[in-house]
Amino acid sequence: MFEKSDPTPLVAIEDELLQEKNLKLYIKREDLIDPEISGNKWRKLKYNLIKAKEQGKEIVLTFGGAYSNHIAATAAAAKRFGFHAIGVIRGEELNENSNPTLRKAHENGMQLLFVSRPDYMFRTSPHWLSMHQQEYSAFIIPEGGSNHLAIQGVKEILNEIEIDFDYITCPVGTGGTLAGLASGLHPHQKALGFASLSGEGYLEKEVGQLLSPEFHSRKEIIHDYDFGGYAKHDPKLIEFIQEFYNKHQIALDPIYTGKMMYGLYDRIKKDKFESGKTIIAVHTGGLQGIAGFNEKYGLELKA
Ligand SMILES: Cc1ncc(COP(=O)(O)O)c(C=O)c1O
């Protein structure tokens, strides 16, 4: 289960701006890890599903929004590795045909339970969780897959990087990816997380809970590039994503990796990195969500 022989590629980015600022930038192409269990989802699901198998569970239950990459990846992973998957989806008005993400999850055999926004708030309540655990005898994976088992998987990204670097960056949604990266760094290195939703204070708390105290100072969350909140965007962001694709042939999504790269480039322009440093940006995947995004907003972003 979750066998893979090669590391994901580490691609050097050539750019006049990087030359001018004397910085090296690489993208760790986690988006290429698997066509369906993409990016950080592969890393976060790996030890969760291994644990579920060890516990003899046949059902995995998890949570997500209408366009959730985590729902898409869990459905695909459950199908591939022989689990029945249940997805608790935020939005009672939705159904399995509401968008390409839910359609595909349903096609992959995931049972979708649509709940109201107030009910969805119970997703972290111990009472509600134990009720569902008993009802379905399921292995429960939290929203976004972020728990201690996810940290173990995300840390493995670092084992594949053979060059020395100063900064490693990722988008932040539920915080597991940033916590996983920070927890494997050396003291001279820092993990920079770019918040994809408005959550100052809240995100720090979430990441802090997943991280042992000695690693707290190895991470920082940057809140300046959330574009007003989750899935919010503006023409500047869309233009940046299109230009980045035209220049480097690397697709970015407008919810996570697009905001991270936009923020990273802006900080490079504003001299937030000292000359001579090496930065690795983790491409956490999420390209499956672009179809739904294009459909909703009438855009033509490449996936
Ligand atoms: C493509 C993508 N990148 C980054 C993230 C953020 O990761 P995390 O939830 O671990 O903060 C997510 C999901 O939340 C995602 O789907």
UniProtKB/TrEMBL annotation:
InterPro entries: ACCD_DCysDesulf, TrpB-like_PALP, TrpB-like_PALP_sf. Signal peptide: none annotated. Gene3D superfamilies: 3.40.50.1100. Keywords: Pyridoxal phosphate. It holds the Pfam family PALP. Belongs to the ACC deaminase/D-cysteine desulfhydrase family. This is Pyridoxal-phosphate dependent enzyme. It comes from Reichenbachiella ulvae.
